[in-house]
Amino acid sequence: MSNTDTQAVIRLDGVEKSYGKHHVLKGVTMQVNKGDIYGLVGKNGAGKTTIFKMILGLSEFTTGSVSIAGSTTKKELYTNRGKIGFFVGSNFYNYLTGKANLEYYARAKGIPRNEIKDEISRVLELVGLQDVKQPVKGYSLGMKQRLGIGNAILGNPEILILDEPTNGLDPQGIADIRHMVRRFRDEYGMTVIVSSHILGELENTADRFGIVHNGVIAKEITQEDLSLKRPEIELSVSMDDLEKARQVLSQSGINILKEGKEKVTLEDYYFELIGGEAD
Predict the structure, then answer these.
(1) 8 Å CB contact between 153 and 183
(2) Which of 15, 135, 189, 268 is the most buried (most CB within 10 A)?
(3) Which fold has domain 1-83+157-231?
């Protein structure tokens, strides 16, 4: 077993999923390592949510294998799924407050009764809802997303799965979710998998990416891969030195006005890989 394999907290090998004659996943192989913020990239219908369902056991895969936290048997896989917190949409009782909803889910998750009050206070502070007293029916979309993430982190899971957590949010709401995700990893040691079709935002959040296309992981890349994609160098000089710099560079046959590596964006990489372009 390689060192990379020993770091894996989630691994899929050749996972396929079919609904009748409709093949949704066609041999997905991917690996998420401990401490990653792993961005799952792909257009709507590419298979991102189905991959999450395979990991969570919400649907059985047709062929292939899934390993969580090193599981090698079905019993271990079932047990280790308990280490995952997940957000796949907001599903709450609208007539209850956010706190009351979390109390219900905390009991369902088996959190000891004497710990529930403190745990909910901790979670509500983390997602910025500690002062909200109204029923969920009066929540904005952003508040419901926050509450859904709060439910996912109840019990401080080792692994966190977030399916389109910024969908429909305004720029401030998107930025807030980004900071939350990084805090979960940096302060609480969670490994996070987050999906989105907003490529620019996912690029700002994750450090590794899996590009889903036509039911497979077409490519796994890192932030470093994006940085190395375009090695062109430009030189930047102050206005006071501009003319002198022009003379020196001209004598050498060089026309450089700015120094720095131009980084290819995740969107550039995505469309180069699968074809097409942004609308």
Answers:
(1) no
(2) 15
(3) Rossmann fold (3.40.50)
- Alpha-carbon gap, residue 43 to 57, rounded angstroms: 23
241 C-beta neighbours (distance < 10 Å), count: 10
b/e sequence 133-157, b meaning 16+ C-beta within 10 Å:
eebbeebeebbbbbbbbbbbbbbeb
HSE on the CB side for 199, CA within 13 Å?
20
- Angle at which helices 113-126 and 141-152 cross, to 10°: 140
pLDDT in tens, 33-65: 999 999 999 888 888 999 999 999 999 999 999
The type of residue at 107 is R
Q: What are phi and psi of 54, to 5 degrees?
A: -65, -40
Q: Which DSSP letter does residue 10 get?
A: E
Answer with the residue of higher pLDDT: 265 or 155.
155
Which pTM does this prediction carry?
0.81
Lowest-confidence segment of 47-56, 66-75, 196-205, 232-241 by average pLDDT: 232-241
Closest alpha carbon to 150 in 129, 167, 133? 129
Cβ atoms 86, 161 nearer than 8 A: yes
Q: Is 34 exposed, middle or buried (0-12, 13-18, 19+ CB in 10 A)?
A: middle
Whether the CB-CB separation of 129 and 150 falls below 8 Å is answered with yes
